Amino acid sequence: MEKDSRIQSHPILKFKRGNKLKFKFDGKRVEGYENESIAAALFASGVRVFSKSKRYNNPEGWFCGIGKCCSCLMRVDGIPNIRTCITPVREGMRVERQGHKGVLPDQPDIKVERKEKDVQVLVIGGGPAGLGAGITSGRLGLNTLVIDENPIPGGQLIKQSHKFFGSKAEYARLRGFEIAGIMFEELKDCGGEYLTETSAIGYYGRGKTGKHKLLAVQNGADGFLLLEINTAYIAVTTGAYENYFPFPGNYMPGVYGAGGVQTLMNVYGVKPGNKALIVGAGNVGLIVGYQLLQARVEVEALIEATSQIGGYLVHASKLARLGVPILLRHTIKEVKGEECVEGATIVEIDEDMQVIEGTEQELDVDLVLISVGLSASSKILSQAGCRRMFVRELGGWLSIHNENMETTIDGIYMAGDAAGIAEASTAMLEGKIVGAAIAEKEGCSLEEAGRIRENAIRELTEIKKSASLQEVAKGKGKCMQRWNELKKV
């Protein structure tokens, strides 16, 4: 294992790691901290290969960092398929690579309890949309529970160190991790409950009382708690997952999702590598490029397949001023290395996305960040039977919803990236709309709920007039039209 790669100083972030803990990885002693995930602690200790592929035995490592992929699955205390990227380190735990066979434990050393819980509003996902929905419904007098499978409240906000644009109501000029803390406190102040390390595992329709029934599992230091949640309303705000990108060697440790690197670097304070190539010039790629420089990682180049930068010019200008080459009409051809990335080849492409022979460039990098878009994470909505449609402008397949963010199943709502890929301010406003629309249905604070919902819809409409969100507005229009057709409105 290599020396500790934890970041000791940062121009903006301060990492509260907590007490040092010891655990075993494949029989060897490893040190971590109580505020780290297992995967982050392993990465910081020099572990890059988390598993081997089943068919070709290729080395695989960290990718998304938020529990959306299978790259970090390991056996923990004898239990297989634990998502180590969202499971905190605990003293004395046993962590093992799984190998090719998912062997179940003979006698799992775990304790499972069962509990029934009744709430008016259940919010699944605790990011900007979920917190927006929870705060609004709580303020309007509804008993609200927010659950999230990550160990730290705030969703994707917690890894954003840049200052946000927008209006004061959506926390403009504050950094993402600051917004997460403020919104979490607002939720508590209005009586809302927030459960971390809690995964929704299944929707079971309506019970005899007419309420929606959902099962969730909370992971704790002493075992697991199975929650049977009965609720009048469900708001699904589960965000999105990063798209993959095909090229030779893309499975190799060192090829990571840009958001996954953000989590590793900005949440856990672990340096992801030394020299980076970023693939994709949307907002995520541009922002992560600057954040890499803050963590003292060299950015050799940022490449984009199209002829224009997809993100905000202000983010691109920052990188350009700091000397980072932004190469348009370029793509990655392959990465090189045995167990980890040791280099990458990029190449120029024409207007038809065809490689221009003889334009290859070799880059000395150990880190390749993939930032080629997101897809809505909405499996629980599909499992519940919500009707879906493909909307290119919103990132692909998603559940059909109306202006109030209600799906085709009465009482089930959605907001944020789960309802179409946009940005944080949009997610917060959609969350507000959900919370207010539910309160109106329940007859709680009708006048105030109506005012909040109408103001949020008005502000959302204005935001979507910007050039970067016009396509999103078009996609939302298609979705709402289809909802009206299905409901015969």
Description:
- This protein has 489 residues and is α/β, with parallel strands linked by helices.
- The chain has three domains: 90 residues, Ubiquitin-like (UB roll); 238 residues, FAD/NAD(P)-binding domain; 120 residues, 3-Layer(bba) Sandwich (FAD/NAD(P)-binding domain).
- The protein is built from ten helices and 26 strands.
- Strands 8, 9, 10, 11, 12, 13 and 26 form a seven-stranded mixed sheet that branches.
- Helix 6 links the parallel strand 17 and strand 18.
- Helix 4 runs parallel beside helix 5.
- The longest helix has 19 residues.
Distinctive features:
26 strands; 489 residues; Ubiquitin-like (UB roll); alpha/beta; seven-stranded mixed sheet; five-stranded mixed sheet; FAD/NAD(P)-binding domain; 10 helices
CATH architecture of the largest domain: 3-Layer(bba) Sandwich
Overall pLDDT confidence: 94
Number of strands: 26
Output the radius of gyration.
Answer: 22 Å
- As for the number of domains, it is 3
Q: What's the main sheet like?
A: 7 strands, mixed
Between the first and last Cα atoms, what is the distance in angstroms?
Answer: 62 Å
- Structural class by helix and strand composition: alpha/beta
Report the portion of residues in β strands: 25-35%
Task: Sum up the overall morphology in one term.
Answer: globular
What is the CATH C-level name of the largest domain?
Alpha Beta
Number of contiguous helices: 10
- Name given to the CATH homologous superfamily of the largest domain: FAD/NAD(P)-binding domain
From the 3D structure, determine the CATH topology of the largest domain.
Answer: FAD/NAD(P)-binding domain
Low-confidence stretches: none
| Helix coverage percent | 25-40%
